[in-house]
Design brief:
Blueprint: E1 2-11, H1 17-35, E2 42-49, H2 58-63, E3 73-77, E4 88-97, E5 107-108, H3 117-120
Parallel strand pairs: 1-5, 2-3
Antiparallel strand pairs: 1-4, 2-4
């Protein structure tokens, strides 16, 4: 058994609680589905947001999902680099798994596909 990191990112179109909650849930569901994860195998989830997103804590969207109530979640601000992608939510999910690094599927949705074009091709829409 190994502890692996799974990366994911997405963007929202507006700084609203509804949009942040919707896209956070969508990103998590995609990561869970593609990597066949169960909440019990998750060590922790680190979530960052760009500084232009302050309408909601993305962790709230995850905490409301059945089975995710006890998963440790942490939100933080992304480093504010000039010219960086705006309205972006990023995940680093630490998971216990038998999968190799090559088997892990990172997920980049919406405008966040630009962050890792090398991985976005396999990330879907």
């Amino acid at each position: 058994m190994y502890t692996r990191g799974i990366r994911g990112a997405t963007t929202v179109t507006s700084n609203t609680e509804a949009e942040i909650m919707k896209e956070t849930s969508k990103l998590l569901q995609e990561i869970v589905e593609r990597n066949q994860l169960e909440p019990e195998a998750i060590c922790s989830v680190w979530i960052t947001l760009t500084q232009d997103l302050d309408a909601a804590f993305p962790a709230k969207a995850i905490r409301e999902l059945t089975g995710w109530e006890l998963v440790p979640l942490m939100c933080s601000l992304e480093v504010p680099v000039k010219g960086a992608l705006e309205k972006c939510i990023r995940f680093m999910i630490h998971v216990n798994t038998e999968k190799s690094q090559k088997e892990i599927q990172h997920v980049y949705l919406n405008g966040a596909k630009a962050l890792r074009p090398d991985l976005a091709a396999s990330s879907g829409s």
